[in-house]
Design a protein that fits this description.
This protein is an alpha+beta fold. It folds into 2 domains: 230 residues, no CATH class; 216 residues, Rossmann fold, CATH 3.40.50. Helices cover 20% and strands 31% of the residues. The chain contains 10 helices and 23 strands. The strands form 5 sheets. The chain has a 7-stranded mixed sheet. Strands 1, 2, 3, 9, 11 and 13 form a 6-stranded mixed sheet that branches. Strands 4, 5, 8, 10, 12 and 14 form a 6-stranded antiparallel sheet that branches. A hairpin with an 8-residue loop joins strand 15 and strand 16. The longest helix has 15 residues. The two termini are 34 Å apart.
Amino acid sequence: MHYIRLLRPPSLVEGKQTVLSFVLTITTDLGDSFYSPDGPRGISVRLETETRLNEPAVAASSDGSSPSDSATNQYSDVMPPSRKRKRAGSEELSGSGEAVETTAARTEEHFFQIDCPAKQASSGKTQSLAWSSGTRVLKMGLVVPQEAVARLRDPLVVRRRICFSMLDRRLSIVSATDVITTGSYSVVPLWVDVPATDSEAFRHVAVRRLCIGHDDRQPEKRPIWVEEEEEVGESIARHIWDAGLATVAFVADTCMGSSRGRTEEEQDGLAGYLRRLLATKPGRLHVLELGSGVGILGIGLATILGHVRRGGPDEQDEQDGISVLLTDLPEAEERATANMQRATVPAQVRLDYENLDWDEGCQGRFGAKVAGGRPWDLVVLSDCTYNVDMLPALVQTLSALQAAASTGVRVLLARKPRHADEEALFGLLAGEGWQLSASSTMALPGGKEELELYLYGR
């Protein structure tokens, strides 16, 4: 699985023509391998705008963005230069997850393909908007069509963003189905919000989006999106990693997909257990995530739970309702909390964050939210085993959580194996009395690596 990444924020340069300049690469989650297709693969750069047609205005988040209701079929193999779709207003979710009534509002979405390379000043030549095996960085300037420029300056536009994806839709990972389906899907697209005015610069963050299903409670069955900000640049610390993204897709398919056609092993194994616990178990449900990073797994689970569990008013109670608590080191807090604010999590789910250092947790020292008396029905973690020096503290933290619990704790561990030293984890778990209850593997997009999922109890 590979990711389109911007190495620095893009820019819009005004002149005789408006030119979008950017520097991108396509690498694995850790940036240790570049995308190497069989032949040149075209890259799509598309401006997406949403325009208000009448009052009241469509709800938007503080940075001018708002969740998209666009169906996944907007990512067709070939996008026309300009496309629009009108949408009748209804109850929308703002970027903070607050429901905002926009019954009288109607919006129109426009899509503009930006695919005309600007000539290089030094040579007068144009560069192809394509990625080939051996490419490391693609530095481009693209001429923005005049119609798109006018749309950017339109005061009625309530959302502006640019999507970088593969031109062939069959290569882009847009939905949970793309992740779990064996096929050609292999590259995760990227979105960036466009500043509302010329005086503002592009932010140093980009957005990943994954459609996890459709809301059957809405007449038009709107797609349900998980959106996550990550930092622009080469740092891997504040990016989405494979196991978190793939686990969200696995759980979404398990809990939101149809159970018909599933094998007996799937019904009785890990998928069946998760479906019963997360989707059909009555009453309260509390989930704790360790090592949340930017928050893709915890926020994804919160979004799924909000749509598969039809909670009543009594489930608003902290003890008896649905909650997901993300934890990590202090340096992860800013990006994780920003993504929580961006998330469109249904109101019946309580989503929160607290710092947790495993060097403290292994000694049973937890913050007020972790140790607040809620029984943790499920502890989840993804891609947390790569640093073998921290494995003893991780396992002892799990044991301390179990010791403090009034009931048994289940642990869902997801990983993409990266080196042999990680296998020490299983010996440490066994030494602490943790027993494997179920496991599953899933091929990751690209076909060369696997997601491993383990369910432990003690």
